[in-house]
Design a protein that fits this description.
D-Maltodextrin-Binding Protein, domain 2, about 325 residues, five-stranded mixed β-sheet, alpha/beta, 14 helices
């Protein structure tokens, strides 16, 4: 083969490769949880499904472990198109889309069956649609566990009065702050990544989260008292920048929606089982798990419902859901 033929073939190969490269749509997804967490596992599944269903045309790159920022930053990045996707908890997202606050009210869901009857029905759809006003598309709701309070050595909580004066880390959201106040503790908002050292050094006395995060964050090592008050069961959600979504073809949009739906169903099952496993793990490591009658907790937070009159119609619909 003469040199010019080799050059010609090389140019053709480069042109074809370049066309293939630029034909691929690369989307970025930010996730604040570490590798191995059920939501992160589900986000990788979402990426794989998008790639499979698009025959490699669309690639979703997952940046886990808060590489691109914590949840507040992730939401802003998704709104401004700095990233294409962000997986976040509804507690923080409610600061952007107030209607979502209804799912972050303490004890709003009777149990898991009631929760998903609401989230997968008309109420859930209505709340997700409101995200469009803020430049976001929301996909199927994800499970983020049931949140409970945990505290450092020497400050166990087994009844409501034990919380009086304790500094409890909460997510930076109005409802969470007010909830902790009504429970008699001192709400202390901070980024998730700062919690371990703050527990270790006594900056805070406790925090609140589900068993999976309590375990994977290592918080059980410095806050061994875990009380089953079951105050919150807020969903998580995968967001996408609205303009980016609308820039895709109808077929591509359906691929994203299908992959998100399947990843959400997978994540729910995985999160439920992971929480059961994490509970056993931390208990074996020495955490003291305290089941309680949480009625006094429920009574204490009742005034919170009156502080959100605009949510009253949705609250009533949720309560009426069988």
């Amino acid at each position: 083969m003469n040199i010019w033929r080799k050059v010609l073939l090389g140019v053709c190969f480069f042109t074809i490769s370049s066309q293939s490269l630029y034909a691929e749509i690369i989307l970025r997804l930010t996730e604040n949880q570490p590798e191995g967490n059920p939501v992160t596992v589900a986000m990788h599944l979402f990426s794989d499904l998008v790639n499979e269903y698009s025959n490699g045309e669309i690639s979703v790159r997952v940046y886990s472990g808060a590489q691109l920022g914590q949840e507040t930053e992730s939401i802003e990045q998704a709104q401004f198109g700095i990233v294409d996707f962000a997986r976040v908890n509804s507690v923080v997202l409610a600061n952007v889309s107030p209607t979502l606050s209804v799912f972050t009210l303490p004890y709003i869901f009777r149990d898991a069956a009631h929760k998903y009857k609401v989230l997968d029905g008309e109420i859930g759809d209505q709340v997700r649609t409101d995200l469009n006003k803020y430049g976001l598309i929301g996909f199927d709701y994800l499970e983020s566990g049931t949140r409970n309070i945990y505290t450092v050595e020497g400050k166990p909580v087994t009844k409501l009065s034990d919380l009086k004066g304790l500094k409890i880390r909460v997510q930076p959201a109005r409802i969470s702050l007010r909830m902790i106040e009504l429970l008699g503790a001192v709400p202390t908002p901070m980024n998730y990544g700062e919690v371990f050292s703050s527990l270790q050094t006594g900056v805070i006395d406790g925090a609140e989260n589900d068993f999976v995060s309590y375990h994977t964050s290592g918080h059980f090592e410095v806050a061994p008292n875990y009380v089953l008050d079951r105050h919150l069961s807020p969903p998580a959600i995968l967001l996408m920048n609205k303009k980016r979504f609308e820039s895709l073809t109808s077929a591509q949009q359906k691929i994203i929606e299908r992959a998100a739906h399947e990843a959400a169903l997978f994540e729910r099952d995985l999160m439920f089982s992971a929480n059961q496993k994490a509970q056993k793990t931390v208990q074996a490591a020495g955490s003291i798990i305290s089941p309680i009658d949480n009625q006094e907790f429920q009574n204490a937070i009742l005034p919170l419902y009156d502080e959100f009159p605009t949510l009253s119609p949705i609250i009533e619909r949720i309560r009426a859901t069988k």
